Amino acid sequence: MRRHFVHFLWGSLLAILGVITVFFISVWNGWVGYMPNMDELSNPIDKFASQVYSSDQQLIGTWNADNNNRVAIDYNGLSPHLVHALVATEDERFYEHSGVDFIALGRAVVKRGVMGQASAGGGSTITQQLAKQLFSEKAHSTVERLLQKPIEWIIAVKLERHFTKEEILAMYFNYFDFLHNAVGIKRAANVYFNKEPRKLTVTEAAMLVGLCKNPSMFNPLRYPERCKQRRNVVLMQMVKSGYVTKAEYDELSQRPLGLHFTKAKPVSGAADYFQAYLRQYMMAKKPVREDYQAWQNRQFVLDSIAWEQDPLYGWCNKNTKRNGEPYNVNTDGLRIYTTIDTRMQQYAEESVRKHVGGYLQSQFNLAMRYKKNAPFSSNISRRTIKEILNRSCRQTLRYQRLKEQGATPDEIRRSFQTPHEMTIFTYHGDVDTVMTPIDSIRYYKSFLRSAFVSMDPHTGAVKAYVGGIDYQHFKYDVVMGGRRQVGSTIKPFLYALAMQNGMTPCTLAPNVQRTYGGWTPRNGSRARYGQEVPLRWALQQSNNWISAYLINLLGPSQFVNILHDFGLNNPDIDKNTSPVLCLGPCEASVGEMASAYTTFANGGIRCAPLFVTKIEDSHGNVIAKFQPLMTEVISEVSSYQMIDMLRAVIQGGTGSRLRYAYHLTADMGGKTGTTNNNADGWFMGITPNLVSGCWVGGEDRDIHFDHTSMGQGATMALPVWAYYMQRVYADKRLGYSQSTKFTMPAKFNPCQTADTINVNGIQEEYF
Question: Closest Cα to residue 478, out of 315, 298, 663, 352?
């Protein structure tokens, strides 16, 4: 009997060992669970990330399922203190094992599993933790986590075979999220200490390694004392491992955290708004009518056209990999080469921040200081303000979660009126405070918003893209994602229509106020009232009476048609067939307007924005190339006539401060725009090789300056364009010069409707 029992025990043991062996063989070969292949192990960070490059060959972002944007550095870029702190704290036998530390694993099983000591420490090595970060999905139960462990062991062993210890340490630091948008050690060192990782001191390194245990719990901004205690624990571990002496510990542990916190900004030229838009654009699915609201019919049509005509729109779902699956920018390790220039992007971001954040915002705050309705206009009622705030509340994630949990209207109201800890945006860095959610909504509405885009008019290449003032806190993108009323920036399209119908910049029109079907347009000036004035002067002065005269003469339907040719596709344009359309009550995005203005600088041919030039797969094979999409809108002669008139706006019209205030001497044209009540300020500018546009306004149309002196486009938007162009011209590496002239035919006379002109040395008869 005893012998049978012994045989049973040996048989059971062998069976268990056999099952374990088969299980690990199955895991090793990927038959059970997920096991990365050799390519993924060779470049593991790309398993969850596509790389986005600028036109000047800079890595501006990585895309993965966690929406993190990290910049990797190699082992030589790490401070030795970082390495010592991590090894001492997380894996003291790191240099001795091959991925799995069986001594630490056994200790964890006995002390934590058998004896129940929660403080006994874990058994995961640094390599296992890296494997978890790179290749494990988030476990939703203890059972799932236990099943993941063997997979991570094997991945860790494979990582150790493919990488040196130094490379594994570098990958670990590059991947970790240190909070406050500091993903990766490079950004963490920049954010917390305003220095590079290789220059971190022992205490700074210990603090950052301390965050690896639980960055939220040891948040140095919110819980500085708790963070300091954790840092000192790391220092003590360094003492035990011989990296720091006890005497050094006694002195170092008394030091303050020494933070030099700098709000995480996009990497130079990282273009967060651009990346977010591009990511969504490439991942778009084929439009299905049922997915659109009844009022989105026009958008469905536009998306359907984009699906058919724009190779980049929905590229991931229109193209498949070898296995037949569609591409995914989060997991396929694509290399996406964009048209963004990091230097120009940086200049655009800094120009927006300089003018909007450094000047306009303080002026707006000053104007609103003693107004009860602030930041809203004094012209609206308290009831209207309440409706706006309630609508904003309903759009928040807090409201949606409370509704899903079955909260009553009173409970939701109390939640929004109860103070909470939160981190809020300021132009001087994020600030931790206590505030009610409803007050925070009003607070954020007090910030003026802005958008700016710059593109090459001949190729459509988007060089700079600033969708807002700060992506982390204001994600609404007005470059391509949102539309605002365009005001007088619409007038050049009307004048272009006039040129197409045989008029010239010298054509005379009556400068008088008239009534058209019950509509009597107003004008900001009565200069030259009652006279016959040239169209050039009328556009230069942004004269409303002449615009009304032209649209009445040419007809609103013709104007609507040419607006569509210029790329303005807002459904409101089709609905508005009255003459008032000539003053710009319709809405457009900054990107649409910039694309439309390329027509004037590109011989009458409109260039659609070009965001990407090519895409490579993870092996470096080119799998897609993109060319500019162009549409002929007006004749070449009409484009020259429009350049003549847009130049006049700069020479002596509403854009003249570019000359006398900002001292720009370049050959340029432009147009300002201001909507009713100063709700929107615009400036669109063209040069021979760049077309750029800027919009500034409040989140809601009822948030604005009450006086035109501050609320007009020449004050709100034009300076951003000026600062940007100053920086672009000053950077000789970019190749833009103020001496460059618009390419015009020899002896071209804009005031003749029929003229023999020289194009490339050949005499051609026009009209």
Answer: 352
